[in-house]
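Q: My labmate handed me this sequence with no annotations at all. I'd like to see what the chain might look like in three dimensions before we decide whether it's worth expressing. Could you predict it?
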Amino acid sequence: MKVFVYFIGKVRDQHAQALTEEYLKRTTRYAPAQAREVKPEALEFLDRHPSAYKIFLDPAGKQLPSPNFAALVGKLEDEGRDLLFLLGGHDGLTEAQRARADLLLSLSLMTWPHELARAMLAEQIYRAFATLRGHPYPR
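A: Here is what I predict for the chain of 139 residues:
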């Protein structure tokens, strides 16, 4: 399993970006993980991952407690599927982007700056893998 995280737009807060990078770096202990920034109109990167399970972040998406999210990651890992995440820009996702998702996921009912949402997503990905491996971090 490989983890691909795509962010629409440019990061402004370098401190939040450092958190994002740290959690994705920790994730690589368990699975290859990489993040990239993409332009809002670009969808061609999705075609490079035809069999990946696509989780797109959306305020109206499903909310999952961290243990349930970890269980989903574990199920997909058992199936040998890659994971692809997409976090929209300040205007959110378009209908065309939403239609390409296997799961629309909400991090919270609260509104967060996109830089913090990036860090929160990266942390939850790491938390899921740490949970699956019995690491004490999630306690």
